[in-house]
């Protein structure tokens, strides 16, 4: 067996495969007089030290002890866009001076990010926004509660060990991992700002880190009037709305009030399940007013790859809607499943590929409906696959709903006057991920990817373009400035 994963004493030769010298990381450092050994898998490690109870902090200490401590970053101390901008500017400077070592480091560079799905999304958004030359692929360490993104790409969903052996074992997997493309999904939200509170984020929403206020809109924008604000961001796993997001919001609120009660993943998941009961998710027909069902809250429109907007029919019983990019939701479940041949032919449906430019739209009635995912070939109510989807909220019986992006929920006010809240999701290119060779995420270009199931396989009958300027950035990098020519008015 490889002593990199079995010995308690770190293997120095193994660690050299990942080590990056100071002068690559720090612009003020001088190159070594003796050329160092070229690492085969140079890595930058970004860790949310506040994730996973004490695990994040422990993981930071272990990585710092094994690698150059300057290639390991605590996200609570330094934002990833600041670190990546500094390192890549230095790499370009060294390359312009004919430094071949720097060019090879940049070519081989990989990123490890340790945190929840929200932390991973933050890194993905930053890499996309910075438009790095030869953007590095990203591996995700599961430090959150759901860990859907790491699970989809083969990195597991249980919180990892933080000891030397566990970390070196993970590094070895990163070295051997394959690169995969994953679709980026841009989200744009426009609404009237509350009468009280600031705009970034809007209080009392406490929007997730993945949504960022755009403070200026075009003079030609029909909604460019006092009191309106626009947010934008990105996601790589899912956007959801309704009762599932309500339960998630209750969980996050409780954790914020009593962080000492949420020390490990098992406790978090148990608390989450209890809140699902107390919030009425299992008895939704009794506790959840029909005025909050999706069909009563919003008009939903979809667009195929190169088509026109068309209204999407949402059954009246649907209380939760999920726009899904990966085959992993709620701790590893696959709400879309694999449609059988009849569904593929009659409804123009496909398996859930992660790089096909299509997002899967799935509906659920209640938690009992969600339990069907535990059965073979189980799935939710398949509503559509789309290149873009748009939610239009008008004044109605409900004054708020709950939304969630990659595990980060918020309470969303709805119009009380003759206003409109608009949420629009659109495809925006792809980013590089690292995946194990047996991961469940599948590429449309991979010959081993699944096709539609044969017609004799059971499949539950639960069914009842040119990118505009405002969709070209996620806003994840704080250093990003909106160029003067950007017109964010064309959201229709």
Automatic annotation (TrEMBL):
The lineage of its organism: Eukaryota, Viridiplantae, Streptophyta, Embryophyta, Tracheophyta. Transmembrane segments: none annotated. InterPro entries: ATP-NAD_kinase_N, DGK, Diacylglycerol_kin_accessory, Diacylglycerol_kinase_cat_dom, Diacylglycerol_kinase_pln, NAD/diacylglycerol_kinase_sf. Monomer. GO terms for biological process: defense response; phospholipase C-activating G protein-coupled receptor signaling pathway. This is Diacylglycerol kinase. Residues 441-466 are annotated as: Disordered. It comes from the Eukaryota. Residues 38-191 form the DAGKc domain. Belongs to the eukaryotic diacylglycerol kinase family. Keywords: ATP-binding, Kinase, Nucleotide-binding, Plant defense, Stress response, Transferase. It catalyses: a 1,2-diacyl-sn-glycerol + ATP = a 1,2-diacyl-sn-glycero-3-phosphate + ADP + H(+).
């Amino acid at each position: 067996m490889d002593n990199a994963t079995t010995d308690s004493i770190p293997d120095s030769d193994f660690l050299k495969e990942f080590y990056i010298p100071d002068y690559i990381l720090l612009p003020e450092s001088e190159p070594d007089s003796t050329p160092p050994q070229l690492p085969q898998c140079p890595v930058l490690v970004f860790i949310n030290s506040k994730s996973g109870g004490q695990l994040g902090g422990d993981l930071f200490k272990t990585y710092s002890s094994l690698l150059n401590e300057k290639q390991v970053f605590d996200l609570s101390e330094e934002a990833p866009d600041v670190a990546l901008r500094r390192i890549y500017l230095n790499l370009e400077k060294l390359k312009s001076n004919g430094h071949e070592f720097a060019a090879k480091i940049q070519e081989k560079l990989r990123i490890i990010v340790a945190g929840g799905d929200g932390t991973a999304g933050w890194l993905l958004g930053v890499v996309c926004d910075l438009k790095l030359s030869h953007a590095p692929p990203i591996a995700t360490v599961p430090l959150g509660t759901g860990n859907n993104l790491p699970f989809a790409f083969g990195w597991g969903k249980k919180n990892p060990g933080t000891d030397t052996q566990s970390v070196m074992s993970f590094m070895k997997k990163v070295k051997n991992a394959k690169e995969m493309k994953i679709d980026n999904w841009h989200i744009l939200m426009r609404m009237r700002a509350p009468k009280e509170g600031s705009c970034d984020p809007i209080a009392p929403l406490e929007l997730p880190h993945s949504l960022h206020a755009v403070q200026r809109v075009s003079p030609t924008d029909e909604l460019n009037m006092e009191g309106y604000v626009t947010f934008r961001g990105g996601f790589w796993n899912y956007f959801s709305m309704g009762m599932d997001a309500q339960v998630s919001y209750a969980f996050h609120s409780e954790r914020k009030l009593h962080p000492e009660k949420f020390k490990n993943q098992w406790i978090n998941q148990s608390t989450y399940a209890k809140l699902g009961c107390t919030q009425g998710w299992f008895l939704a027909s009794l506790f959840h007013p029909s005025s909050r069902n999706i069909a009563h809250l919003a008009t939903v429109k979809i667009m195929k790859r190169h088509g026109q907007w068309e209204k999407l029919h949402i059954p009246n019983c649907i209380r939760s809607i999920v726009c899904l990019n990966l085959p992993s939701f709620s701790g590893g479940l696959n709400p879309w499943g694999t449609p059988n041949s009849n569904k593929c032919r009659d409804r123009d449906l496909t398996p859930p590929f992660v790089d096909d430019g299509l997002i899967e739209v799935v509906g659920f009635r209640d938690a009992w409906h969600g339990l069907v995912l535990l059965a073979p070939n189980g799935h939710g109510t398949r509503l559509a696959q789309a290149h873009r989807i748009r939610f239009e909220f008008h004044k109605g019986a409900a004054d708020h709903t709950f939304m969630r992006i990659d595990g980060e929920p918020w309470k969303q006010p709805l119009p009380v006057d003759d206003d409109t809240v608009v949420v629009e999701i659109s495809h925006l290119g792809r980013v590089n991920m690292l995946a194990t060779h047996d991961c469940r995420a599948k590429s449309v270009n991979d010959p081993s990817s699944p096709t539609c199931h044969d017609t004799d396989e059971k499949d539950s009958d639960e069914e009842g373009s040119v990118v505009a300027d405002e969709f070209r950035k996620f806003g994840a990098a704080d250093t990003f400035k909106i160029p003067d020519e950007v017109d964010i008015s064309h959201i229709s």
